[in-house]
Model the fold of this input.
Amino acid sequence: MGSKGFEEVTNGIKNVLQMLFLGLVLVALFSQHVQMWMGSKVALLARSGVESIKIGELELKLRQAEQAIKTLANNPQVTPPTTAPKQEGPKDQTPPPSLSPALQLINEPGSFWVYVGQFQNGRFIRSPNFNVTQIPKADDELAATADTYKRDALPVPQGQDWRLGQIVGVVKEGQHVKVRKVEVIEGGNVWAQAVIPKQ
Done:
């Protein structure tokens, strides 16, 4: 086989590998299981300080991906609305399973706000998002019982609704947070300002 034949074979193999990679990317876009798996792997790379991944001509810039995820997470057409009806008080929903792994890429330092649950008549009405039976206090360490949005601010009244803070990440089920401050807002809705404890 001459050098021209060898070059054609290697180009063919390269093209097949690129098509296979593209196929995997397409599967990742449409498969929830693969989305969760890939999200956790990319999050691991981002936390390790990797800024971009380059495979052939394809380059994924993790910082740009992080910004895109923030935009996606805060887009009301994709996730639950960023407002809550005034009569229900400022509640938050859990992130959809397909978005939660991507939100792990967002790793903003410092404190954030999380929705704990609705507390009335000495108990939580539904299962809270953290392992508590009473309203938590400052310096308590809590474990998430469900994926829970990290938000940049407390909810604020806005006309007939509550405006929720911007989504800045997610506390994964089982992950611990350390409470800095607690606010009980209209209707017994408990919100905690927290940080991820140092390990």
The chain has one domain: 31-199. Residues 31-199 form one domain.
